[in-house]
Amino acid sequence: MSNLDVHQFICRDDNYGVLVHDSRTGTTISIDAPDANAIADNLKKRGWQLTHILTTHHHEDHIAGNLALKEMFGCRIIGPEAEKAKIPGIMQTVKGGDVLQLAHRPVKVFDCPGHTLGHVAYHFSDDYLLFAADTLFSLGCGRVFEGTMEQMHTSVNQFRTLQPMTSVYCGHEYTEANAKFALTIEPGNRDLQRRAIEVKSLREQGKMTCPTTIGEELKTNPYLRCASPEIRKVLGMENATDAQVFAEIRERKNRF
Ligand code: ZN
Ligand code: FE
């Protein structure tokens, strides 16, 4: 589908490092910069030169490598306008609705307030790639630190409009714990049962569970399934709004 090379690896403890490379132009983009050395090693292995960092939000585990990588590669750091004061080395800012042109293709920016107020996601629409960082995880979503539950609900649910085949890259490898929790909320969901088994087996083999897809998450991720009759029954919230169900799921996860 896409003629971009996407290389993903685990760094720090459970952060994903992601490199996106276009061989025609030599453009190489790091989605966030959790760890400069790990990213530099992976670039070296591939023979790629880093040209850009697309920052999703200001948390330390997403910006820690910015300055060292900028020093090493002279790469251009792009990130959310609303968090520019907290993003080291930032040279260009974006906000929801903006469309960047990178490697001759559009990169659409989504505002995703909730986890942080300025969190953005990047959508390579021609390539069906979404980089959602700490907004949407496989079978989960990020903790709501700065925004409201309402905002996070809207941020997560805006991804429903993307094509089901869209690959979703996330900020963290949290899928196994998310699966355990999701099964307490929607135990009868066959797709979720199947995914939980798959995830357990992948983790036992030391493999990564992402990328996932929008289609897969719509079938299995409780935060995208607030209308599910089973979820509403389990929560005793048959008549609540989707946003209320979302908030209850997120609060239960915090205590899980
Ligand atoms: Zn974060
Ligand atoms: Fe994070």
Summarize the structure.
The chain has 256 residues and is an alpha/beta fold. Helix content is 34%, strand content 23%.
Give an overview in words.
With 256 residues, the protein is of the alpha/beta class. The protein has a single domain (4-255), classed as Metallo-beta-lactamase, Chain A (4-Layer Sandwich), CATH 3.60.15.10. It is built from nine helices and 14 strands. It has a six-stranded mixed sheet, covered by helices on one side. A hairpin with an 8-residue loop joins β8 and β9. α4 (149-157) crosses α9. The longest helix is centred in the last third of the chain and has 15 residues, at 190-204. The mean pLDDT is 97. The structure holds zinc ion and fe (iii) ion. The site of fe (iii) ion has 6 residues, from α2.
Could you give the order of the helices and strands? EEEHEHHEEEEEEEEHEHHEHHH
Could you say how many structural domains there are in total?
A: 1
CATH class: Alpha Beta
Distance between the termini: 38 Å
How does the overall form come out from the CA principal axes?
globular
The main sheet orders its strands as 1-2-3-4-5-6
Proportion of helical residues: 25-40%
